[in-house]
Amino acid sequence: xxxxxxxxxxxxxxxxxxxxxxxxxxxxxxxxxxxxxxxxxxxxxxxxxxxxxxxxxxxxxxxxxxxxxxxxxxxxxxxxxxxxxxxxxxxxxxxxxxxxxxxxxxxxxxxxxxxxxxxxxxxxxxxxxxxxxxxxxxxxxxxxxxxxxxxxxxxxxxxxxxxxxxxxxxxxxxxxxxxxxxxxxxxxxxxxxxxxxxxxxxxxxxxxxxxxxxxxxxxxxxxxxxxxxxxxxxxxxxxxxxxxxxxxxxxxxxxxxxxxxxxxxxxxxxxxxxxxxxxxxxxxxxxxxxxxxxxxxxxxxxxxxxxxx
Length: 309
Fold this sequence. Notes:
Elements: H1 2-13, H2 19-31, H3 33-51, H4 54-66, H5 77-95, E1 100-103, E2 110-113, E3 119-122, E4 127-132, E5 137-149, E6 158-161, E7 165-169, E8 173-179, E9 182-189, E10 192-196, E11 204-206, E12 210-215, E13 218-224, H6 227-230, E14 237-244, H7 245-253, E15 260-262, E16 271-277, H8 281-292, E17 294-298, E18 304-308
Parallel strand pairs: 5-6, 15-18
Antiparallel strand pairs: 1-4, 2-3, 3-5, 4-5, 5-8, 6-7, 7-10, 8-9, 9-12, 10-11, 12-13, 14-16, 17-18
Helix pairs in contact: 1-3, 1-5, 2-3, 3-5, 4-5, 7-8
């Protein structure tokens, strides 16, 4: 990604870019948030070279050149290599102790394009701290749920960490949810290795469609899941098939700013099937109420009280 951005920078700096090149660049930059992030990173590094003094510039150039291979290419290949090497040197040297913090409000779902090319989708009311270094990529999940598409970098493990343990990517896509019951890991693609924080010898590897919960006492298997359905929340939907209405109401309530009250004992034995819009929790709750023959009463403070009709 960074090398592609550097190629574009070298092409524009050479003043040989055509209108077709510019159109292609706009399409590339618009294709994915990580493309724009890579372009901004290269341009920021290029600007730092312009702003540096002669001695700083020379030192930076020597250090970057020392990281280059002997291969040279035509049409700005050396400039591209210098940009990539210099950016990598500064980025990784400066990021060893740097972190980025992200959070979402209730009802908000947000995608964060990480600098390594991974995409981190944060569910409602989630909080993470991300640390990307030369040797590893760590996401500390304080609360809530995240889904990640991991960019391949075998020499830099991607780990989601909670107070209960770790979930290390051995592939590309999985989700981790932290709540009062522990840490739930669901694998969409490839494999994930999960390890309890206090029981390093109790690690377990999950495959596609598998899920498990990490607790203080170890790893508990939770059976298989429909991987596509499990990740639908990332696009704003909850899809359920004959699922207890208590579970569905609790899930939708997480996306609502005001509370939802109901007596689970009164709703036992009621299941629902359907697709519900998480971005419109009140509409979703109305749909569940219709399907399960429930009533909804709205309180002055915005609270919804749900019960049998």
